[in-house]
Amino acid sequence: MQQQLTDIRERMIVALDFSTLDEVKKCIEPLQGHIRYVKVGMELAYAEGPAIVSFLKEKGLNVFLDLKVHDIPNTAKGAMRSLARLGADMVNVHAAGGVAMMAAAREGLEQGTAAGAARPLLIGVTMLTSTGLQTMNQELAIPGAVEDVVVHYARMTKQAGLDGVVASPLEVPMIKKAAGDAFVTVTPGIRPLGADQGDQTRITTPEQAFRLGSDYLVIGRAITGAKDPVGVWQSIVAAVEKDRS
Ligand code: C5P
């Protein structure tokens, strides 16, 4: 049972969507000893620089550095070589950059990973959950259904040798069917029952996301914006445990 609990905690990533180290400290201080994995996005990384990764690693936390690299293959490769040296556990690129860019990113990540150290997981961002059908069809000029494009991007990502994709939990079953069970899925858009939906549209509860096969859940404001973040965290863990028992 304890093993199962530990696994769940290691698979729930708390999004630190802040712009200062002070806010981060205030947020993680009460959660220390509970949470295991955090996500650093562009807002925080650009404001605080690479030192934010070592700060969080020193706190014993795993770090998903969510910088969504998207550039020509050679530049993406160099970016990943540099990112590998920061000590993050998970990094990502946009699948829309294509197979050659993603393969180059993986090569760069391998080159930058210190001998004997584990290579960070490399994840492809499929279609952003904020991109609706109309935007995709008309502005991006990509025809078809969003789900079909997501599955196509997942296949491309696997072909390029990446470890998995970021997607909506609702898309996980089709991604696993297309790319296999071992292909990692990282899913934002998580709301515990009764939580504010905010700007997310295709949401699930943490229990549903795990049931659909998500490997990692990204949870932001439901925890970081709560009056009692530890209480919310504990109730999520309890709800998931109960659902799985
Ligand atoms: O607060 P909330 O739980 O909605 O935060 C979700 C996090 O996941 C945010 O950091 C957001 O940028 C990120 N994300 C997302 N949808 C994607 C990719 C990333 O919500 N498709």
Describe this structure in words.
It is a single chain. The protein is built from twelve helices and eight strands. It is of the alpha/beta class and 245 residues long. It has a single domain, classed as Aldolase class I (TIM Barrel, Alpha-Beta Barrel), CATH 3.20.20. An eight-stranded parallel barrel has the order 1-2-3-4-5-6-7-8, surrounded by seven helices. It is globular, with a radius of gyration of 17 Å. The N and C termini lie close together (9 Å). Residues 1-5 have low confidence and may be disordered. The site of cytidine-5'-monophosphate has 16 residues, from strand 8 and helix 11. The site of cytidine-5'-monophosphate (C5P) has 16 residues, from strand 8 and helix 11.
Assigned CATH class: Alpha Beta
CATH topology: TIM Barrel
Structural class: alpha/beta
**Helical residues, percent:** 40-55%
Q: Tell me the number of helical segments per DSSP (H or I, 4 or more residues long).
A: 12
What is Rg?
Answer: 17 Å
Question: Distance between the terminal alpha carbons, to the nearest Å?
Answer: 9 Å
Mean pLDDT: 94
Distinct small molecules: cytidine-5'-monophosphate
Trace the largest sheet across and list its strands: 1-2-3-4-5-6-7-8
* Count of strand segments: 8
- Apparent shape: globular
> Superfamily at the CATH H level?
Aldolase class I
Query: What kind of assembly state do the chains in view correspond to?
Result: single chain
Strand content: 15-25%
The H/E string reads: HEHEHHEHEHEHHEHEHEHH
Assign the CATH architecture: Alpha-Beta Barrel
